[in-house]
Amino acid sequence: MGLLTGCAPTGGSVESREIGDFYNVVFFLALVVFVGVNGALLYFVTKYRRRPTDVGMPPQIHGSTIAEVTWTVLPALLVFGLFGMSWSSMRSVDRKDEPPNVTVNVQGYQWNWEFDYGNNFKVKAKKDADGKPLVPLMKVPVGERIRFVLTSDNVIHSFFLPEMLFKRDVVPGRLNQFDITIDSAGLYKGQCAEFCGTDHALMNFQLQALNRADFEAWVKDEKANSCAGEPAGTLELASPPGQIAYDKDCLVAPAGQPVKLTYTNGGGQPHNVLVVKSEKERGTLFGKSGDPIPSGTETGEIAAQPAGQYFFFCQVHPVMNGTYKVQ
């Protein structure tokens, strides 16, 4: 037992050390109870074993007030003490009294992860030459408060960072969230810890903590390379039947001329497409394909815009979004 506990990670965040400290207390108390109970058992088995000269029953003792009070009060104190410590640790780990420096919206789906940082920037799992998804890499600044907002569009997943000693369920229709402050730069492994279907074992990801300057440089490079293609005056976008998703997360249009957008909803969920200046300005619409439709196809016109990166999303399901690039 002692050897196994030596394999437990110390944690790479402020919150993980809070969890680790509580774990050490629980382990020490469990060790004391284990040694005490088994020591007493061995002592009584040895000292009061039946000998060949013993005849009849030994003297029976009943109603020891001291013994009954002891084995009632001590376990009660132990349980209440652990309850108080666990409540304090949970409050400390789950507190959100400070605004985060970075918010990452984590979307779990069958079978991978998508990390949306807002402001038209998201990280998705890329594919290799054979079309198999690669492990997505999420980067965050070290020493800053990071908030993870978790959601799923299909089944229950579980966002697990073993080296942060933290796991939280990703539940459809519910936004679970937590904050961590990673104070040790490095590359950490993550995975889905809830069996979610055939390719559950492929739902791995990596989290890299790096300094603020390197993080901002990475964001800038990823934004520049995330949406590319030949601009077209006629664009098409679709949603697969029954899914809360678009088939594309990048639309490229020519600068200075209106663009025709044809949207097809495969059915099962009402969707539409709104194009706005930025994710933070969703109320400032300059083009749309129309009101939400349960299924079918509709065509709309997006007004001419100067070169730049814009944002499109579904008004009913904002997790459906992508980059509208004008060049």
Characteristics:
327 residues; alpha+beta; five-stranded mixed β-sheet; 18 strands
What does this structure look like?
The chain has 327 residues and is α+β, with helices and mostly antiparallel strands. It has 4 helices and 18 strands. A 5-stranded mixed beta sheet has the order 3-2-1-5-8. The protein has a 5-stranded mixed beta sheet with strand order 4-10-9-6-7. It has a 5-stranded mixed beta sheet with strand order 12-18-17-14-15, with no helix packed on it. A hairpin with a 2-residue loop joins strand 2 and strand 3. Helix 2 packs antiparallel against helix 3. The longest helix has 34 residues. The protein starts with a helix and ends with a strand. The mean pLDDT is 84.
Write the layout of secondary structure elements.
Elements: H1 2-5, H2 14-47, H3 65-94, E1 102-109, E2 112-118, E3 121-124, E4 137-141, E5 145-152, E6 157-161, E7 166-170, E8 176-181, E9 186-192, E10 204-210, H4 212-226, E11 234-239, E12 250-253, E13 259-265, E14 274-276, E15 285-288, E16 296-302, E17 308-313, E18 321-326
Parallel strand pairs: 1-5, 4-10, 11-13, 12-18
Antiparallel strand pairs: 1-2, 2-3, 5-8, 6-7, 6-9, 9-10, 13-16, 14-15, 14-17, 17-18
End-to-end gap: 62 Å
Helices, by number, come to 4
Q: How is the largest sheet built, in terms of strand order?
A: 3-2-1-5-8
What's the pLDDT, averaged over the residues?
84
Total strands: 18
Low-confidence stretches: none
- Kindly estimate the percentage of residues that lie in beta strands according to DSSP: 25-35%
Characterize the largest beta sheet: strand count, sense, and whether it forms a barrel.
5 strands, mixed
